[in-house]
Amino acid sequence: MENPLIAAMIQFAILGTAGEIVAKLLTKSKISIFKIIYSAFVWAILGVVIKFAFTGFNGFVNELVNHHYLPSGKIYQAFFKSLFTNAFFGPWLVIIHRFLENISKLKVPTEGLKGALLTLLWFWVPAHTITFSLPVEWQITLAAVWSFVLGLILGIFSNLKKTKGEENA
């Protein structure tokens, strides 16, 4: 697609929402068409914000490498782009996403926030290291795929937790 921001919107709207739907199906949670449409809208907004962050942190890391503050080399740069993106931008993205998902309450729900922030370490830093190893034109696509994958993983864990809780009851 010619416009990278529109491409990011579309990819995240489709894949991020699909991840949420699959997670809800796995946990046997209720799915409403309104919630799906709203979720696609939220993911589209996040896609643009993420595209901006990816571009900005790419420049940030390149400047640090040019000034010899960081090692050069593709894998080093991919790792540091991922690390800085997730350390400086990731927490804000988690909070913004939670706020937008619960905008009718005009607050950020704190339940599960610690777990959501921990995904930045165990999931997003390794995932985005792979993402930033790819050519720029594929990075947003893979990031959107990772959003789907994380939704799937979290849905499976949630379902396992529910099943284990029912066995212990």
From TrEMBL:
<feature type="transmembrane region" description="Helical">
    <location>
        <begin position="6"/>
        <end position="26"/>
    </location>
</feature>
<feature type="transmembrane region" description="Helical">
    <location>
        <begin position="75"/>
        <end position="95"/>
    </location>
</feature>
<feature type="transmembrane region" description="Helical">
    <location>
        <begin position="33"/>
        <end position="55"/>
    </location>
</feature>
<protein>
    <submittedName>
        <fullName>Uncharacterized protein</fullName>
    </submittedName>
</protein>
<feature type="transmembrane region" description="Helical">
    <location>
        <begin position="116"/>
        <end position="134"/>
    </location>
</feature>
<keyword id="KW-0812">Transmembrane</keyword>
<feature type="transmembrane region" description="Helical">
    <location>
        <begin position="140"/>
        <end position="160"/>
    </location>
</feature>
<keyword id="KW-0472">Membrane</keyword>
<keyword id="KW-1133">Transmembrane helix</keyword>
